[in-house]
Write a structure and sequence with these properties.
The chain is mostly helical. It has helices at residues 12-58, 68-77, 85-88, 107-115, 121-125, 129-138, 145-148, 151-161. The protein folds into 2 domains: 10-58; 68-161, no CATH class. It is rod-shaped, with a radius of gyration of 30 Å. Keywords: Membrane, Transmembrane, Transmembrane helix.
């Protein structure tokens, strides 16, 4: 009567090869999409962990707040949000330059600048007049001293040498 064996069709082998190719392409596409999802999840986790590490490095609060320097640094650190970092740029502790190379910045003043997340010559070089006044107020420094000591021009020169 009727013989319906699909393997007896003249293009049966071609159909099998075509189905294998389609299955391989679909498997590749599904694997690629899922791999991209995993990569994006891991990158977002890495970013959040990086931010957490930066926060830990920034929040170096000394538990013994009895000495005057620690009290001053904590008071200054509390005002760090007032600085316009979108304009002057962000930096981390890992990127920190030796700010004491700028004439007029000593060890304690450098710690004050670090307390408000200013770590690099590039950040100081990007100061405008408003930034100078704001930073001067936050770090409780002598009015006009940043301009007299020419921090911005010194920082530009030091950033170029770096």
């Amino acid at each position: 009567m009727f013989e319906l064996n699909p393997l007896n069709l003249p293009d049966a082998q071609m159909q099998h090869v075509l189905m294998l190719v389609v299955a391989g392409v679909l498997g590749f596409i599904i694997g690629y999409v899922s791999r991209q999802n995993v990569i994006s999840q891991l990158e977002s986790e890495l970013t959040s962990v990086g931010h957490a590490v930066d926060d830990c490095q920034r929040a170096r609060l000394v538990p013994d707040a009895s000495n005057e320097e620690t009290i001053i640094l904590n008071r200054i650190r509390a005002r760090a949000g007032e600085v316009n970092f979108t304009r002057i740029g962000l930096a981390s502790v890992d990127e920190a330059d030796d700010l004491k190379d700028i004439v007029g910045i000593g060890p304690f003043l450098e710690r004050k600048l670090h307390a408000i997340d200013i770590y690099t010559f590039r950040q100081i070089a990007n100061f405008n007049q408003d930034d100078i006044e704001k930073v001067n107020d936050i770090i409780e420094f002598f009015p006009g001293r940043i301009e007299r000591d020419r921090w911005v021009s010194q920082a530009k020169e030091l950033a170029k040498k770096k």
